[in-house]
Amino acid sequence: MILESTPNGLYCSQGGFYVDPSRPVRRAVVSHAHTDHARWGSRHYLAATRSEHLLRMRMSDEAEFQFLNYGESVTIGGVKVSFYPAGHMLGSAQVRLEHRGRVEVVTGDYKLGADPTCESWEPIRCHLLVTESTFGLPIYRWEPDHVTTTAINDWWRESRDAGKCCLLYGYAVGKSQRLLAGLDPEIGPIYTHGAVEKGTEAYRQSGVAMPATTYVGSIEGKHDWKGGMVVAVPSAHGTPWMRKFGRVSTAMASGWMAVRGSRRRRSVDRGFVVSDHVDWPSLLQAVEACDPETVWVTHGYTAVVARYLNEQGQHAEILDSASRGEQEEEAATSMQSNDRQNADPRLDDRQEPS
């Protein structure tokens, strides 16, 4: 085996590095820039080049970085390390490790299908596949992107015609930019919460096309918000920050919106099922495409996925993870104060449970 599970996360003893460590370490190989995978405090980070602007946005200036293009490799202690697109967000990567003919792959967070804001997931044949299972239940099945995008724009148009401003909630880095890419600017002006604008600027610097946006905080004095679309982080909901927009219609974009009651608990008017993680059929499709001898299942509904795979003749094991579960991450995120987000948006890009 190349990888082993430790209290600090997945460890490669031959190379002396961790993959997405749960605590600060000397050398970290990271799959993407969300903070539950790229944690603050490590000395040296190795990541995909496409994530550079996002990582530098939120890491300490003292951190050392090394970046690789997708498909390129570097050998560390005899272990060949390379990155391949994961489709989760800008710069997200599967980590491929090869040593003496054995190949092990860590998916990080990933999704299948096209996304205008990042490269699409690619299958990698391997001996060991470490897969997330955030939405690893048969009830989670995503609709095609164009269906959801049309529904969001229709909701915006209807709200505009009713003289309202739309507030669409999505996590600051990754989800929000995907939502922005699907908005129709012909409907009205698009505004952003401070944390969302910070992440969007990093996307623009990385060459990802984004519609024109205006940072809410840059507008002084009275302003007519009717007909506008404001993309904001979930914890802004229900705060005094919302009052400036007058009559509003609110919506949450999240994979959790597929579950009855999630919209009610969020106290929003609409819920759109938009996730940057694999759903149940995509997870199974990914395992089949990678054709591993062994699957380690982590982050989510691990027991359900592992049991199902074993029943299908696959050798699957539950991988203990020091990372918080996605539901816990969502709850903690929703409790963060709006003041904290506006003060330091670099801290907000860990908000991606959905």
TrEMBL record:
Stored Gene3D superfamilies: 3.40.50.10890, Ribonuclease Z/Hydroxyacylglutathione hydrolase-like
Biased amino acid composition, Basic and acidic residues: 341-354
SUPFAM superfamilies to which the protein is assigned, alphabetical: Metallo-hydrolase/oxidoreductase
Region (Disordered) residue spans: 320-354
PANTHER family hit by this protein: BLL1145 PROTEIN, CLEAVAGE AND POLYADENYLATION SPECIFICITY FACTOR FAMILY MEMBER
Protein name stated in the entry: mRNA 3-end processing factor
Organism: Neorhodopirellula lusitana
